[in-house]
Automatic annotation (TrEMBL):
One protein family per Pfam: tRNA_edit
Gene3D superfamilies found in the cross-reference section: YbaK/aminoacyl-tRNA synthetase-associated domain (3.90.960.10)
SUPFAM superfamilies according to UniProt: YbaK/ProRS associated domain
UniProt similarity note: Belongs to the PRORSD1 family.
Official protein name in the record: PrdX deacylase domain-containing protein 1
Domain YbaK/aminoacyl-tRNA synthetase-associated: 38-166
Organism: Saccoglossus kowalevskii
Amino acid sequence: MAEVEIPSTSPDNRKMAGKEEIIDELKRQGYDIEVFEHPEVFTVETMMPYVGHLPGVHTKNFFLKDKKKKGLWLMTVKHDREVNLGKISKEVGAPGGLRFADESIMLDKIGVGQGCVTPIALYNDKNKDVKFILDSDIINGGHERMYCHPMVNSATIGIKPEDFKSFIESTGHSPILLNF
């Protein structure tokens, strides 16, 4: 797969945070994070050989739009969850159901491309255009850490679930917790 050029600014000319900026921000806010470098991965299946041994919950992420084009959604679930977009659409009230959003929209709204979707990218959603759906087990399951990409798919970060929730809330996003 070809490398995606991520624009350095959004339409309102603000700089989008990348890997180093997001790691610095997490540390600045006092969160205890671990960073694990690995080859680029584009699926959960190809990622797990590199990080599957780490204690905690591993995630997979989806960037979605509703069919009526009225809303954008980022969804984070445990890596091994079956996802039924029709059922989830009804639970969150997405007009017309949820569909995968185009990569150009991801780049514009959260500053990441295909294969790099991460809830940490909500940091770049300064206008709060994206709603966040979160598997409740990630926060409430008693996990030591939760793992996701830090804006790139060549690394994984581990963060305590309570710190992750605090970070997401610091971006102005309130997770919609769903039981899967």
